[in-house]
TrEMBL record:
GO terms for biological process: maturation of 5.8S rRNA. InterPro entries: RNA-DNA_Helicase (IPR050699), Ski2/MTR4_C (IPR012961). Pfam families: DSHCT. One of its GO terms (cellular component) is nucleus. Gene3D superfamilies: 1.10.3380.30. Keywords: ATP-binding, Helicase, Hydrolase, Nucleotide-binding. The keyword Hydrolase applies. This is ATP-dependent RNA helicase Ski2/MTR4 C-terminal domain-containing protein. It comes from Guillardia theta.
């Protein structure tokens, strides 16, 4: 009993009890805090569910794209185009695979193949009204047509793709320089009239050589020996001079 009375006395003398209005405000703030915490927990759970739904929707869309482009069959079994695309990681695998299987490179010289493929590694801003020589303009136009088709299929398959923006990412700003480089033009002469930074040109040509070498490997996988030889020849044309100097610091 004495302990109970002592406790009651301490409670009555506590500063919180003496300032009941402050206590009431503090209590209300605490209740609001609990309510907010509860709301946050509910929202987080809803977000997890929504993100899962988005992921499942995207996965279905991706499967539709692969089936429509013949990378897989109706049973989701990987076909030869799918095997080829799986070998590519240095550029847009869908567009590159379409170009190979549509025979776009078959009648092009090795140096022209390299110039066209530069559109997959060059991403700097250049003049949108760039004038290309006829030997490059036609195959690059074909490239953009294939890219538009791939993007359209993705969009129609309910994937979030802006078709025109997708096409614009394939930039031809380094194409003519790549052509001239493969034809043996010296680096100093190559850069004489260029507005592109030297380091950017070197990095892009090195990345391009990696892509071309990878595509040669893809052609080996699918049994296209003629195109494999052509890509290997394009690689040899690029690997020279200061661009591939072993001691070059990039």
């Amino acid at each position: 009993v004495r302990k109970s009375e002592s406790l009651e006395t301490k409670v009555k003398q506590h500063k919180v009890n003496k300032s009941s209005s402050k206590y009431a405000k503090a209590y209300e703030s605490y209740k609001k805090k609990l309510a907010i915490a509860s709301s946050i927990a509910v929202l987080q759970k809803s977000m997890k569910g929504a993100s899962g739904m988005v992921f499942r929707s995207e996965l279905k869309g991706m499967k539709r794209v692969l089936r429509r482009l013949k990378y897989t069959d109706g049973e989701d079994v990987v076909q030869i185009k799918g095997r080829a695309a799986a070998e590519i990681d240095c550029g847009d695998e869908l567009v590159l695979t379409e170009l190979i299987f549509e025979g776009v490179f078959n009648d092009l010289a090795p140096e022209v193949c390299a110039a066209v493929l530069s559109c997959f590694v060059f991403d700097e801003k250049t003049d949108e009204n760039l004038r290309l020589p006829d030997e490059l303009k036609r195959p690059i136009d074909v490239l953009k047509d294939k890219a538009r088709r791939v993007a359209t299929v993705q969009s129609e398959s309910k994937l979030q793709v802006d078709v025109e923006e997708y096409v614009k990412k394939f930039k031809a700003g380094l194409a003519e320089m790549t052509l001239r480089w493969c034809q043996g033009v010296k680096f100093v002469d190559l850069m004489a009239k260029s507005e592109i930074f030297e380091g950017s040109v070197i990095r892009c040509i090195r990345r391009l050589e990696e892509l071309v070498t990878q595509l040669a490997g893809v052609c080996k996988v699918i049994g296209n020996t003629e195109l494999e030889k052509k890509f290997k020849e394009a690689s040899k044309m690029m690997k020279r001079d200061i661009v591939f100097a072993a001691s070059l610091y990039l």
